[in-house]
Amino acid sequence: MASTPSTVFPSSHAPSILGGRHWFEFLQPLLDAASIMASLIAVKIFARGHVDEAAWAMGLIAIIVFFLSSQLTGLLSQGRHFSVNSEIVSLVTTWSMTVLVLALTAFATRYGQHFARSVMLAWVMMSPAMIGLTRMCLRIVQIGMLRRGIGCRRVAIAGWNPLGEQTRVNMENEPALGLQFAGFYDDRGAERLLEDLNTKADDPLSSSGLTHSSGATPVLMGNLAQLVESARSGEVETVLITLPMRAENRIRFLLDELSDSTASVYIVPDFFVFELLHSRWTQVGGLPAVSVFENPLFGIDGAAKRIADLTLAVSGLIAISLPMCMIAAAVKISSPGPVFFRQRRYGLAGQEIRVWKFRSMRACDDGPVVKQATANDPRITRVGAILRKTSLDELPQLFNVIEGTMSLVGPRPHASAHNEQYRGLIRGYMMRHKVKPGITGLAQVSGCRGETETLDKMKKRVEFDHQYIRTWSLLLDLRILARTMLVFWKQPEAY
């Protein structure tokens, strides 16, 4: 299973491949702060009030909270590479978090009495609109400048292969990068290169659907020696080396020769042959390294997810305590046996945990062999059938979330017996345990739920689990939770 080809390193915090920070990244936060303050001033003036010290303080607090919240949503760190839809969602999420913090602060300190409710409501509505408008204008100006060649850099790609072709496609799809494609350079002949690009049956990228963009044939400008001459003459400002890692001699030749030029040189590693899991650059005692299998939830990200889990789990448990008592009574009355069933499953780092569930079967399998539930399974009770159909049997797992053995969102934990069965059949199966298991997950809201009577169905689940770990963010967790509520009652495959 190949990693997603859209980017070499999918870490959301990785810098641009050209490294340096653009003027856009410095100007955007200033415009966001100005929009927040300007909208507050405009609302105060329109309401025939004066801008006093309380208003300035409120605006300053809002700016600080907005910037802190944007670190969680990635609004500022990825502003240049966001699609319009993603930017709008992140902006709304960031501003909502800001308003929530301001409301709690005003309530705790009674600071809100300095502002009329109509003024605050108008500001809450106007501020994100103004932020979005300034971002749109800045994006238009930036794209217009790049189309006129202002701030663009001519880029040559050394290595006409699937990785080089994908690099070119990425450059064309992201005009905000300011990269102007100058052509491919390779020592192999054009006929052999085209044959290699069109024959991808054994290539790791073949499963990604990689094709020539718009059917156009890219330009082969010459061999590697000619690339060196173009770089020395200044015709090419940047060189991206996409040669395979086994081509060590050619890579060394390029690095030695290009050191006698002023061109910027970057190596785009051919890591598509590996199954990258939240990959990112790191250092080991000053030596550069690339994480291949990594847990994305270290440091502030892990703390943020834990805080969100605790807050939502405790709130949810309080809200549904009465329905849970009613379900417990129904389980107890409908069939003999305990109300709850605790099954051994694998948790974070493959450690064994006990997962809480409402008992939905007459038998409670928890041994070395666990038979999956099937359609019309005679072991399922009448109440249990309803609970499993609606996933209400999973509600006690909120206790697991509170105690820290599970998360609200993550790969669904399988019975220990199934883990031992599939870890030898599916490559990378145990990597799904790099994060805590969840009550719901990306696989479940994407239709992968119910019996896995074929190996392909389980592989599909694992692919979604890996995708979740690679692309994790708090915003993704919120989306999965929202989608879980939408598919709650529509699960024909669950039994």
Structural write-up:
The chain has 495 residues and is of the alpha/beta class. It folds into three domains: 23-147, no CATH class; 153-290, Rossmann fold (3-Layer(aba) Sandwich); 299-486, no CATH class. The protein has helices at residues 23-46, 53-73, 84-109, 117-147, 162-173, 190-198, 224-233, 248-258, 299-319, 321-334, 382-390, 397-403, 416-422, 442-445, 455-470, 474-486, and strands spanning 153-158, 179-185, 220-222, 238-241, 264-267, 280-284, 287-291, 340-346, 352-358, 407-409, 438-440. It has a five-stranded parallel β-sheet, with helices on both faces. Helix 1 (23-46) runs antiparallel to helix 4 and helix 7 (224-233) packs parallel to helix 8 (248-258). It is flat, with a radius of gyration of 27 Å.
Features:
11 strands, Rossmann fold, two-stranded antiparallel ribbon, alpha/beta, 11% strand, 495 residues, disordered N terminus, five-stranded parallel beta sheet, 3 domains
